[in-house]
Design a protein that fits this description.
Chain A: InterPro entries: FAD/NAD-bd_sf (IPR036188), GMC_OxRtase_C (IPR007867). Chain A: This is GMC family oxidoreductase. The complex is a heterodimer of chains A (about 575) and B (about 260). Chain A has about 575 residues and is α/β, with parallel strands linked by helices. Chain A is built from eleven helices and 23 strands. In chain A, the strands form five sheets. In chain A, strands 1, 2, 3, 9, 10, 11, 12, 22 and 23 form a nine-stranded mixed beta sheet that branches. In chain A, strands 6-15-16-17-14-20 form a six-stranded antiparallel beta sheet, covered by helices on one side. Chain A has a four-stranded mixed beta sheet with strand order 5-4-19-18, covered by helices on one side. The longest helix of chain A has 21 residues, at about 455-475. Classes of the chains: A alpha/beta (about 575), B mainly alpha (about 260).
Chain lengths: ~575, ~260
Amino acid sequence: MATELPRKEAVVVGVGWAGGIIASELAKDGIEVMGLERGAERTIDDFIMQKDELRYAVRYDLMQDLSKETLTFRNDRDMRALPMRQLGSFLLGTDLGGAGVHWNGMCPRFLPYDFEIRSQTIDRYGEDKIPEDMPLQDWGISYEDMEEHFAHFDETIGTSGEDNEMSAPRSTEYPTPPMVETPAIRLFKEASSELGLHPYQGPSANLSEAYTNPDGQTIQQCQYCSFCERFGCDYQAKSDPIITVIPTAKETGNFELRTHANVRSISYDGERTDGVYFIDMLTGEEFFQPADIVILTSYVMNNSRLLLQSEIGTPYDPDTQTGVIGKNYCYQIQTSVQGFFDRQFNMYAGAGALVGHVDDYNGDNFDHSDLDFLHGGAIRLMQTGIRPINTNPVPPGTKQWGSEFKEANAHYLFRTLSIGAEGASMPHVNNYLDLDPTYTDSLGDPLLRMTYNFTEQDRNLAAYQTERMQEIMEEMGANDIVANPDIGDYNIRPYQSTHNTGGVIMGGDPDTSAVNNYLQMWDCENLFVVGASAFAHNSGNNPTPTVGALSYRAAEGIKQYYENPGPLA
Amino acid sequence: MADENEEQQTKGLSRRQFLKNSGYVVGGAVGGGLLGGVFTQNFIGTTDAPDTATEGDTTSPEQLTHARMFFKRQEDFDVLSAAVERIFPDDETGPGAISLGVPYFIDKQLAGEYGFNSREYMQGPFFEGAPTQGPQSGMLRRGIFLGGVRTIQNIAQNEHGESYFDLEPEVQDEILEAFEDGEVDMTGVASDEFFAMLRTATIEGAYSDPVYGGNYNMDGWRQIQYPGSQMAYTDVVAEEEFVEMDPVSLHDHHE
């Protein structure tokens, strides 16, 4: 029997970037918010001794405990879905701040093309350019309407960067200057320029200088210590929810946080919700948290899973291609080219978002008339800082162990540069999320089941991007180059990126989307579902700034709804 | 004379192999030829190391962690030591796995969360999956490692009549290569999977912070010019020339 708690005006489920932004914006406006976080509390004191590759980068200390909850995976519907028993392909966050704590801090905005991808593709290339099995959709909003929300996110986190003619236009200056240009990044930029491309210093949440945001929160200057992704920042120099939006929410006095509160279902009468059920993971006690407005702000996977489990919205059916929950699950197509050099670079130094960035082959910045794919991706030389367990670059043909390996690893560790492409992922009718019929979590609830594989579009895009990167690497003067244009089948084991998207997508039509452009559920007007789950496809850039912008947009909608309940679109 | 453990770990072997194995286990248990070698090399490694050993002090605090927490039998530990030394040998590049304390590192890892797969999904049912679906074994790593070193020893005894740690390096490598190629029958796990785990654990022991018992004296880092966990690189990050510096560890942050 669940213990009923005092009613709240709004409850936020999952307190990372999305939950923190919603909580801070509503609480500043005088709305009482309860934040339910299934993980533990986390403060900056947790990161003081964090420069430990084994604990954080290899053993995943900040990541989700899969013994309690994971998902199942299969490449296609003919395969038996099996549990992701160990982390690999993507790293699900846990605890306060969520995946917003262990991110690299890469801050490029999605392109205007992304928001109106279907219309723009038809306008430029005709409808035949879109494959029949690609449910490509506009997002129900234009970049122009999103821009102020992107700017708001940049102001909150203090983004360091510089303008570039190939990236999304901005109404405001970057709050802080770009990060330093290192010799490796300079080499990449010079080679790219020689080839007629437009390289620039990538936008970063590892700040180039100390910055105080409009909420009064200070982010410190990056020390280029190289412990960013998979780590929390011991300097408070990487913007994350713990040093920005969560304290802002707390300072209002209108935000209450409850950790170890694992939400299992959303109460729903077929039209509205009146709260959520959660388990206190420390005591096992069950609670009901009543609320006027419920906002799901957990990671992509759990947003879909909670809706499916609570039977809200129509689950996507790949046979009929109807229904929306679980639809358009997308990922990204990561490819890279390695180059071996004579000289050594100080690649042990770096930062998560210290990067030379090229957008010439991203979005629709290049002509696709004669190409067998849509979109593209950012091409980059990232200097995140080499750490020795996970990075052992040896030339092809080198034995992977013994003296030959040791010698080659010692020689090439700082003589190897890598260029990577972050390829956009387009939706496919057979890539989707639903509930697994066999496997359960530690509470006995069904796991989410992911059905996903790379498509022809993805393979063609990957091969093209690899060729472009090879050209740049040759221009950079590498002696030996390793490039593999064939990505094969999607494999859940090797790390690729924590850029999972879709499942609860936004749009202008309730038949083809789950939420409107304020991320309000079409089927439940006082339920908002916020996060990368709203992306109708995934871009060739990092998702966090777009998650941030959509969160500010949703906060606007929730405030409007609070004043004047009803459908916002 | 085989005890319960012995019987369990022979499940995947043929009856012929099992009979052969049973014969050598008794003899093998008194082997442990590497025991002296382990200590000697560590001792040499320590006294030669330029930056740690304080004068007149031959037992640094780090050395006191060199005792087994997981492996019970000396023979198992000696097989492990010999195998990781082949993966990461003492050579011109620098000290090898044994001098760096890698066997103790692996032993400590197996004694804890890593050995128990405690933060991984271990609920059944278990099915063999496609390679794209990741590991699906219901066995814990501690069981896989124990089975692995005993299978290495079985092969050494069966095919060469000697303990693995007494074989010539070339022969030791041949045995490991058979594992790497997936040619060895093991219980609950493919041999290439076990070899990949062993190789990865060896790299981890050589290159992780010394707090975990490996990378002794930070000599794993020194041989690759890795500066460890420095607090800041603001002065270095934009430098054209490569800057080599003495590494620092978590211990240095702790003071």
